[in-house]
Amino acid sequence: MDDNNYQETIKESKINWGIENDRPIIISGPCSAESRDQVVSTALKLSEMGIKIFRAGVWKPRSRPGNYTGSGSIGLEWLKEVKKLTGMLTAVEVATKDHVQEALQNDVDILWIGARTTVNPFVIQELAETMKGIKNPVLIKNPINPDLDLWTGAIERFLKAGVCNLGVIHRGFSLYKNKKYRNEPLWQIPLDLKTRFPDLPMICDPSHICGNTENIYEVSQKALDLNFDGLMIESHINPLVALSDAKQQITPSELKDLIEKLNVREKVNHIQYSLEKLRGLIDEKDAELVKIMGERMNIVKEIGKIKRENNTIILQADRWNSILGNMIYLGEKYDLNKDFIELIFKSIHQESIYQQSLLMNE
Ligand code: PEP
Ligand code: MN
Question: Which of 90, 128, 134, 289 has the fewest other C-beta atoms within 10 Å?
Fold first, then answer.
């Protein structure tokens, strides 16, 4: 399958989780499923607020041994109860073939691939093959390291295996010394991924980017302004006693306040028409600029020929200084600052010299 076919596959296989019209799509729930009560009480609160997708890690990949590794399979029973009580969709992280099979047997709706799994093409390949033919949405987190190709490769492996109901989750990137964030957002990477897969739904996970609760709002707002489709935010009925990621989890009621504060800006709105008109004018001016530069360059080449025939040097500093001075003066009339004019004319002049030296040495 070449690149274009991937794009087509994604277009045909729009993610289908039943709530496509929600903007933003909100996925929330605890980092880990810890006990039946913790899972059910958190889910009931979230559901009351209108959250439709409940997340909880059942198998937790931990960087260091000795940390809480999740409830294991029993957590899937609690998630089934959540579905029954609230009608919410459920989402868990899967990292092995067995996880996938167990999650599906227990009616989990959405599977996500964690950052520590996306880094490994062998594991991704095996997961993709195990999932062949499933209709459930699969969300692929970015790899922990800032590697766009590795993230892209994971998406391609799933598509190639026919697992097409895909989305991605941006959860930031681990650097040696992160300062403000636990995982640096490096927004350019998800945006570049978006240019590779324009139709792939993109969720931001501010909880794992921030690693604390203070910056979650700011990161969520930024994600929405960058046209992310949704947010995955960790929430726990009592974050103080959470067994994993305690510092970054917020209560359901804090989540409610956060969502109310978010400004969901319009994608297309009333200013669109005036913008389109003005952009049309800019396009015309840009085309004129290029045409004029081409004509200017033809004159430069004529001069080059005369210099060659008469064996004169290319650079005549006085002439160049006088052009620059005149243009800066003219620029002032049009409210263009000196540095800008200098930058433009230096680059035009450099290209002229280059073209003339090509001619002289023909
Ligand atoms: C999680 O979602 O709790 C988790 C472990 O995330 P990540 O894979 O982004 O570290
Ligand atoms: Mn977590």
Answer: 289
